[in-house]
TrEMBL record, chain A:
Matching SMART domains: AAA
This protein's name: ATP-binding cassette domain-containing protein
MF annotations from Gene Ontology: ATP binding
Keywords per UniProt: ATP-binding, Nucleotide-binding
Pfam families (alphabetical): ABC_tran (PF00005)
Domain ABC transporter: 2-237
TrEMBL record, chain B:
InterPro entries linked: ABC_transp_perm/SBD, MetI-like, MetI-like_sf
Annotated membrane topology: Multi-pass membrane protein
Keyword Transmembrane: yes
Highest classification ranks of the organism: Bacteria, Bacillati, Actinomycetota, Actinomycetes, Micrococcales
Protein name, as recorded: ABC transporter permease
Keywords, comma-separated and alphabetical: Membrane, Transmembrane, Transmembrane helix, Transport
Subcellular localization: Cell membrane; Membrane
Classification via Pfam families: BPD_transp_1 (PF00528)
Recorded superkingdom: Bacteria
Chain residue ranges for the region called Disordered: 224-246
Domain ABC transmembrane type-1 intervals: 27-206
Transmembrane segments: 31-53, 60-87, 93-112, 157-177, 189-209
TrEMBL record, chain C:
Lineage, top ranks: Bacteria, Bacillati, Actinomycetota, Actinomycetes, Micrococcales
Position of the signal peptide: none
Origin: domain of life: Bacteria
Membrane-protein topology: Multi-pass membrane protein
Name of this protein: ABC transporter permease subunit
UniProt keyword terms in alphabetical order: Membrane, Transmembrane, Transmembrane helix, Transport
Organism: Cryobacterium breve
Length: 284, 246, 228
């Protein structure tokens, strides 16, 4: 469990990135911080592994104040995946994945064997192990990034817009992969994104942020969709534009779903067919 | 072309290969001097350069100092130091070590600065200590530019060491000044050709080394080396590294 | 100090000599480098050849070059022409790469949109590419100016008169003030030429004044090239 208690962060240039933020992130669940740029979501994420230290307030992991922990050691115990994968360009895929275990003193041979099996876990072919990051596609690089994040078998996995830089098809693929992984591993995942669809897809708990890290609403995706706390949230999730309020129209022999603007949103199909669509969220 | 034939004859004349003033001795002096001066400069400049590159502090000062040093004419510095410490190797060592520092310093810190910030950020986020970031990320990735800086410094020292024969009895430059004194153009030209060959050879060696030290994964990304607009800081574009004083 | 006051005429004469040696190479190297750089940027093969050649040329130490040039072109060792040729060669060696890089740095989209709105071949070069590369060229010229002024002093050891003569003369006669005066004048002259180029840039390239970040952008561009 990660707990923010009245956390604020003012940067040296005077910007108040986070203002009195309090939140509990339950263990073994995915919490998604979603907001536009300037909402302080990345700052919040980076406070968890002390890449950023709060100006005031405390953050606890399982009851222990992280301010008392040594930053380097703390970071080695937490998985971190970032947007541009951040892989070391001069190290092979396998060495990138094994970086942190090696830092923690795991013998080289063992670290490599484990890294290889992590490639399987994230759905990468082992033949890519000896390649350099620049020889991989963007999607493959992100998978390596995830494997690296998992390498120390951390309880906590921090993900900073990990799928932000890949094309929509690959992104959908990676999202499904993450859902599968999470159903197997059950990590405490903290995920940052500006994409509300992604937040609803991945999050058990979704936190919608306004400027300065102020919470607009916290809840499950369905809570938020059903009962947006205010106009800001409604606009953020698209409910105000009628994007989320669909009705059925009969056209050309099919049931078509249409939003309030008259834009086509999809077709109505039988529940069994819906189960088979890849978009369906695996129960956890 | 007669002049070149004479120079060639001078270079090939066995008589010029014996004794303390022979070509081999002068060549060893020249090279030895260069190695020592560049090593001394590197010993001073590399740690500072790494520190500046890693912390981002002191950069303004380094640039200003390098800029100031660059505008100072080598010959002026050489003769001035020679007046202070007397004729001999002391003055050239002091002057050339000083002149070799700015390009190496710049190579060291620009090498670090050229690294993608997200790579360093992610190295820190996965739990590398600052020393580990420096050792395993910044030094290997910054090495090509550091070597470029050392190359600039080396070529400059080779060139200026020739000039240093004006104030000290050593190196290939002696042939130039001796020839000048006795109006022996074959000797001047022959000596000049030797220095040029030495410089071009070193340039070639450094070009090779610079390619070798580009980390494999970084080289793999480059679509083509020759269109890659070269890993070395384009001459002129980085005045801090490329220095015009020969 | 007394030496300086009683030799102001000498200092002035040497400064003029120095200008005669260093200004022509600056202009000539620009004139030669632009077409060469254009060719280098235009074709892949010529780029390799020209840039390798200029790199090697730049690696040649100046003093030996002063001795080689008379043997090639038949000038006398002490003539200013000999030095002007050598300094021009260095200037060209430096500037060619700068011109090629400057032209290459012109945004492809800008070039293509110029073609699209109907610029023809030469007018693209004169009205789009050259002006856009101009800040880079100016930066290169400033480096050439400072290095040429500094290099010109070397000619003194073979007897070509310049501010460098103050070094050789001061060294032989043991007059420290003369050497220091020479160093100061050389630095001042370099700074003046540099300043003149900056001023020229302000007048000819007014749009660069707005973008004070252009230098940083240039740096960044170069840095990404290197790190890619």
């Amino acid at each position: 469990m990660i707990e923010f208690r009245s956390v604020s962060k003012q940067f040296p240039d005077g910007t108040l990135a986070v203002d009195d933020f309090s939140l509990t992130l339950p263990s073994h669940q995915t919490t998604v911080l979603v907001g536009s740029s300037g909402s302080g979501k990345t700052t919040l994420l980076r406070m968890i592994n002390r890449m950023v230290d709060p100006s005031s307030g405390t953050i606890e992991i399982d009851g222990a104040d992280i301010a008392a922990l040594e930053p380097v050691q703390l970071r080695r115990s937490i998985g971190y995946v970032m947007q541009n994968s951040g892989l070391l360009p001069h190290r092979t895929v396998i060495d990138n994945v094994a970086t942190v275990p090696l830092l923690r003193g795991v013998p080289r041979r063992k670290a490599r064997t484990e890294a290889l099996s992590l490639l399987d876990t994230v759905g990468l072919d082992r033949s890519l192990a000896a390649r350099y990051p620049n020889q991989l596609s963007g999607g493959q690089q992100q998978r390596v990034g995830v494997a690296r994040g998992l390498a120390v078998n951390p309880n906590i996995l921090l993900m900073d817009e990990p799928f932000g830089a890949v094309d929509p098809i690959v992104r959908a693929e990676l999202q499904q992969e993450l859902i599968r992984l999470q159903s197997e591993l059950g990590k405490t995942v903290v995920f940052v994104t500006h994409d509300i669809e992604e937040a609803f897809l991945l999050g058990d708990q979704v936190v919608i942020l306004r400027d300065g890290g102020r919470i607009a609403q916290v809840g499950s995706p369905s809570d938020i969709l059903a009962k947006p706390a205010d106009d800001f949230v409604a606009s953020f999730v698209g409910a105000d534009r009628g994007k989320r309020a669909l009705h059925v129209e009969r056209r050309g022999g099919s049931d078509i779903l249409v939003d309030t603007d008259g834009r086509l949103a999809g077709v109505l199909v039988a529940p069994s067919a819906a189960d088979a669509t890849p978009d369906h969220r695996a129960p956890r | 072309m007669n002049l070149f034939a004479d120079a060639l004859n001078w270079i090939l004349d066995p008589a010029n290969y014996v004794g303390p003033g022979g070509i081999p001795v002068r060549l060893v002096e020249h090279l030895g001097f260069t190695v020592v001066a560049v090593s001394l400069a590197a010993l001073i400049a590399v740690p500072f350069g790494f520190l500046i590159g890693h912390t981002g502090r002191g950069r303004g000062l380094a640039v200003a100092t390098s800029g100031g040093l660059r505008a100072i004419p080598t010959l002026g510095l050489l003769t001035l130091v020679a007046l202070w410490v007397g004729i001999g190797l002391g003055a050239p060592y002091v002057a050339l070590t000083i002149l070799a520092i700015p390009p190496i310093l710049a190579g060291a810190y620009t090498g670090f600065e050229a690294i993608d910030r997200t790579v360093i950020d992610s190295a820190r986020s996965v739990g590398m200590s600052e020393a580990q970031i420096m050792r395993t990320v910044e030094v290997p990735l910054g090495l090509p530019l550091l070597i470029a800086g050392i190359r600039s410094a080396t070529l400059q020292v080779v060139a200026t060491a020739t000039l240093a024969a004006y104030v000290a009895d050593f190196g290939l430059g002696r042939f130039l000044f001796a020839g000048l004194k006795t109006r022996d153009y074959a000797e001047m030209l022959g000596g000049s050709i030797l220095v040029i060959l030495l410089a071009v050879l070193l340039e070639g060696i450094f070009t090779g080394v610079q390619r070798l030290v580009v980390p494999k994964g970084v080289a793999a990304a480059r679509p083509s080396v020759d269109r890659g607009r070269s890993a070395r800081p384009a001459s002129g574009m980085d005045p801090a590294i490329t220095k015009g004083t020969h | 100090m007394t030496w300086i006051w009683s030799n102001l005429d000498l200092l002035w004469d040497r400064t003029l000599d120095h200008l005669v040696l260093s200004v022509p190479p600056l202009l000539l190297s620009f004139l030669f480098a632009v077409p060469l750089g254009w060719v280098a940027n235009r074709y892949r093969i010529s780029r390799g050849v020209i840039l390798t050649a200029s790199g090697l040329l730049y690696a040649i130490p100046s003093l030996p070059l002063f001795f080689v040039i008379p043997a090639v072109v038949g000038t006398s060792l002490r003539s200013p022409l000999n030095l002007i040729i050598a300094l021009t060669l260095y200037g060209v060696a430096l500037m060619v790469r700068v011109v090629a890089d400057g032209l290459a740095s012109v945004d492809k989209d800008v070039r293509q949109s110029a073609v699209a709105v109907g610029y023809s071949g030469w007018s693209i070069f004169w009205q789009v590419e050259l002006p856009l590369a101009a800040p880079v060229l100016l930066a290169g010229l400033r480096v050439v100016a400072v290095s040429t002024v500094s290099l010109a002093t070397v000619g003194a050891v073979i007897g070509a008169q310049s501010l460098g003569s103050l070094f050789t003369d001061g060294f032989q006669r043991g007059i420290q003030a003369e050497i220091i005066a020479g160093i100061v004048l050389t630095v001042v002259l370099a700074l003046l030429l540099d300043g003149a180029l900056v001023l020229l840039g302000r007048i000819l390239l007014p749009w660069t004044r707005l973008a004070s970040t252009s230098r940083r952008a240039l740096r960044a561009a170069r840095v990404t090239e290197v790190s890619e």
